[in-house]
Amino acid sequence: MPEQEQNFVIMDCSQRGISKLPTSLEFGHPISVINFQSNRIKALEMSTFARVDNIEELDLSANQITQIQNFTFAPFHSLALLRLSHNYLTEVSPGLLDGMRNLRVLEIGHNVIQRLNNTAFRATPNLQELRMQYNPIFELPEQLFK
């Protein structure tokens, strides 16, 4: 059962040895925070979060994620914090963050991202904090934040 904290329902699935998420997650309670930190998740499909909304924080850090299908996070219109650090992501594809207009903090540090597309962050107009330290990025596109 999820734990409640200040009107937030937190689902903590960290350090559970999870290697794959179901094709379509569904919860019986409204969830505000989901923590999948420190598991063995390798990929996320577009339909994984199709039936989940009103999430404000999602932590997928310290997994083995190499691939996230575009529009996977599209249902998260309320998402303010997304943690994807300490994975094996190689890029932030143009459609990855689509639908995330309220995203304020994105953590993608400690991956293997080498380059960023010009339009990578266009769908996140409220982004205030971007943590992308310890990635082998050698050059940032001029139009990245326009």
From TrEMBL:
Top-rank taxon: Eukaryota
Name the record gives this protein: Uncharacterized protein
SMART domains xref list: LRR_TYP
Classification via Gene3D superfamilies: Ribonuclease Inhibitor
Alphabetical keyword list: Leucine-rich repeat, Repeat
Pfam families cross-referenced by the UniProt entry: LRR_8
